[in-house]
Design goal:
9 helices
């Protein structure tokens, strides 16, 4: 459901590291300082917008335990959790932005990123008790007591994708894409969340940009615009083009397709595509998402037929059924839940885009 006019969209902004935990430090550029300055700029942009309540995990150079960061968001029942960081590697050449969402699957992960962002745990007192034995050096161990719900993951991926698109299209920053990693700070948050790596401080040129007031302002502006877009999209609000004023550098609008029909290619076989009339919505029931491809006739679908899937951001999303009638789609959703998919939800396909039905 969308928000009422009296409700505020609560976003918790988390500046990574701080205090005795400096994060990455290369060429005189310190992650904890850049993360804090950029995060505060994001907040200032959002505070000027109607309907936002911005909360910070830290506003100064202080050490905040990892366990307490998502607690701030959970305590407020926030709508969104955004953590901001900077990257680094021993090789000084890599550069680019990347945005992480929580992984449902612990395999095929970037071990170094996982260990680095979780390593702050070792700076805390009684970490073994607080994190229930979670060892950042062994990410194959289950993190936390639960998996993110499918809807939260999809929402997180949507925001992460928009952030990366804005960095690339509007600022010409090199993109390393949207990735899934078992990061404790995201796993412990009960709402959609992303962890943004602004770039590599180990790359002197990129570090200089991120350390500058101009670079921090530009990156913050794109993050804020992505969050504003997310709020419009997921809370059924009209987007009147009221994003924060931005400097557009290399963006070229994509040409509109000449075809008057949008082809739905989400089915498992190319010859099963159906045509969607512009302005008409197609409904499908998302059962689950997986990093591995599954046979649509396998037992994983518990006897349900008419299974289809999409693949984006290294994630397969599996759907049951299809209908142009919303009431019938609701019946299919209930059927899927009764069949053993309690997290099933309706996805709307329209105008070449898909979104979860609220």
């Amino acid at each position: 459901m969308g928000q009422t006019n009296s409700e505020k969209f609560i976003i918790v902004l988390d500046a990574g590291h701080g205090g005795k935990d400096p994060g990455n430090s290369y060429h005189g550029y310190v992650e904890k300082d850049i993360a804090l300055k950029t995060t505060m700029k994001v907040g200032k942009f959002l505070e000027k917008e109607d309907g936002f309540q911005v909360v910070y995990t830290r506003k100064t150079d202080e050490f905040i335990e990892l366990v307490d960061r998502p607690k701030v968001a959970n305590r407020l029942n926030a709508n969104l959790f955004v953590s901001i960081h900077c990257n680094s590697v021993k090789n000084f050449e890599p550069k680019g932005t990347e945005t992480f969402v929580m992984a449902l699957n612990r395999s095929e992960m970037n071990l170094e990123v996982t260990k680095k962002e979780n390593s702050v745990i070792f700076l805390e007192d009684n970490y073994k008790t607080k994190y229930k034995g979670f060892d950042p050096n062994k990410p194959e161990v289950a993190i936390g007591a639960k998996m993110l719900q499918e809807e939260n993951l999809n929402s997180s991926i949507s925001l992460a994708t928009k952030i990366q698109e804005n960095f690339t299209n509007n600022l010409n920053r090199n993109t390393r894409g949207v990735k899934q990693q078992p990061l404790w700070v995201l796993d412990a948050a009960s709402m959609p969340g992303v962890l943004i790596e602004l770039g590599f401080l180990s790359n002197n040129e990129e570090g200089e940009y991120l350390n500058s007031d101009e670079g921090q302002t530009e990156m913050a502006r794109q993050i804020a615009n992505s969050i504003i877009h997310y709020k419009h999209e997921y809370f059924n609000e009209p987007n009147n083009g009221d994003d924060v004023k931005q400097v557009v550098r290399t963006y070229k609008p994509e040409p509109k397709p000449e075809s008057k029909e949008v082809v739905d290619t989400t089915t498992s076989k190319p010859d099963e595509t159906i045509k969607v009339i512009p302005g008409q919505s197609l409904y499908k029931i998302q059962l689950f998402a997986s990093s591995k491809k599954k046979d649509v006739s396998s037992n994983d679908f518990k006897g349900l037929k008419d299974i289809s899937y999409t693949f984006e951001n290294n994630l397969y999303r599996y759907y049951y059924g299809k209908s142009y009638d919303l009431d019938y789609a609701r019946k299919m959703c209930n059927e899927a839940k009764n069949q053993g998919f309690p997290s099933a939800f309706i996805v709307v396909f329209a105008d070449g885009k898909s979104s979860a039905l609220k």
